[in-house]
């Protein structure tokens, strides 16, 4: 008789445990999505070498002199071509400004467009210039587009003070 009563209890406990695990996995996955990752440094690319830099043009030779009858030696073709000097490197503490990069403050990412539009409308009511962009299957709610990251960081601080979780997306 106790085995009959024990089976439903075990089934209920198993379902509650599975529910708790799924909530935990969803929370951790959401935090991983909302936490900005450090940008991966890209190696500097050298400019493609043009044919002029690889093979120098031969210098015009002076007219033959009667006093000198020696034959000129051909240029050494086994020596590697000189590489152009690299431009000045930016100091590690100060990242250089990349041209064409815009920093946007992201306030949320939603699967449904309706939820994203509702969040953008609420932000606009609070005085922020919010808009919705689509990236794959997600609708991202973003505010601003700045060429200078510090300006985006100032706006992010204002949004955090208003109670929003934000990240800065290039």
From TrEMBL:
Low complexity biased stretches: 43-56
Any GO CC annotation of this UniProt entry: cell septum
PROSITE patterns per the UniProt record, alphabetical: SPOR
Boundaries of every SPOR domain copy: 97-170
Composition bias, Pro residues: 72-94
One Pfam family here: SPOR
GO molecular function: peptidoglycan binding
Disordered: annotated segments: 34-99
Designated name of the protein: SPOR domain-containing protein
Native source organism of the sequence: Candidatus Segetimicrobium genomatis
Upper lineage: Bacteria, Bacillati, Candidatus Sysuimicrobiota, Candidatus Sysuimicrobiia, Candidatus Sysuimicrobiales
């Amino acid at each position: 008789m106790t085995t009959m009563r024990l089976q439903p209890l075990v089934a209920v406990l198993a379902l509650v445990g599975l529910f708790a695990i799924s909530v935990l996995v969803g929370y951790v996955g959401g935090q991983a999505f909302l936490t900005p990752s450090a940008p991966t440094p890209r190696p500097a690319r050298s400019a493609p070498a043009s044919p002029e830099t690889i093979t120098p043009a031969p210098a015009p030779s002076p007219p033959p002199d009667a006093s000198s009858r020696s034959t000129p030696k051909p240029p050494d073709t086994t020596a590697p071509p000189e590489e152009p000097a690299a431009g000045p490197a930016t100091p590690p503490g100060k990242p250089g400004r990349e041209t064409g990069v815009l920093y946007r403050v992201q306030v949320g990412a939603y699967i449904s467009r309706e939820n994203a539009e509702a969040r953008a409308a609420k932000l606009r009511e609070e005085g922020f210039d919010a808009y919705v962009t689509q990236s794959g299957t997600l609708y991202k709610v973003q505010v601003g587009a700045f060429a200078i990251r510090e300006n985006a960081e100032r706006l992010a601080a204002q949004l955090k003070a208003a109670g929003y979780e934000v990240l800065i997306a290039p």
